[in-house]
Amino acid sequence: MKKCLVILTTMLFGIYIFGCAKKEAAMEEGQEQMTMETLATVNTTAPLAPEVKVSQPKVGAVQATPITQAKLVPLPPAGPYKPTAAKIQTALKNSGFYTGEVDSKIGPKTKKAIEEFQKANDLKADGKVGPKTWAVLSKYLSPEPSVAAAAPLKKKR
């Protein structure tokens, strides 16, 4: 019984070794080495992108130009937008609540103007420009025809 077991184990080991060698040979056969000569024969003349043929327009004719690239649009900044002091003062000035100079400093005059703007627009009058206040105030940032035509908010006294 021991002899049969030894013979059987030896045969299985031999088949395993022979099978692995056969697989390795098959893999090497399928993968031939690239030499400089074989690299030179690779077809490099195939076009990478389709060619666009453009005919010459007739004199006086209007020709539509094909769009070749999509325009890149910058992404909005991550998180809430925080306006600069100069933008806040400019928008307050355009809305009629700030009469001082745009100096990029949030001082007592600017805080008072912010509070008055917030009161006039039914916002929490805390003197700080948060997202809700800026959503209303930013409409006055640049005097556009639609904003300039709209009646400016009157100060409450």
Strand content: under 5%
Rounded mean pLDDT is: 75
Distance between the termini: 113 Å
Run of helices and strands: HHHHHH
Number of beta strands: 0
Q: Tell me which CATH architecture of the domain at 85-149 applies here.
A: Orthogonal Bundle
Count of helical regions = 6
**Shape summary:** elongated
Largest sheet: none
| CATH superfamily grouping of the domain at 85-149 | PGBD-like superfamily/PGBD
- Please write the CATH class name of the domain at 85-149: Mainly Alpha
Cα-atom Rg, whole angstroms? Answer: 39 Å
Can you put this structure into words, describing what you see?
- With 157 residues, the protein is mostly helical.
- It has a domain at 85-149: PGBD-like superfamily/PGBD (Muramoyl-pentapeptide Carboxypeptidase, domain 1, Orthogonal Bundle).
- It is built from 6 helices and no strands.
- The longest helix is centred in the first third of the chain and has 29 residues, at 2-30.
Supply the key terms:
157 residues, mainly alpha, Muramoyl-pentapeptide Carboxypeptidase, domain 1, 6 helices, elongated
In short:
Helix content is 45%, strand content 0%. It has 157 residues and is mainly alpha-helical. The protein has a domain at 85-149: Orthogonal Bundle (Muramoyl-pentapeptide Carboxypeptidase, domain 1), CATH 1.10.101.
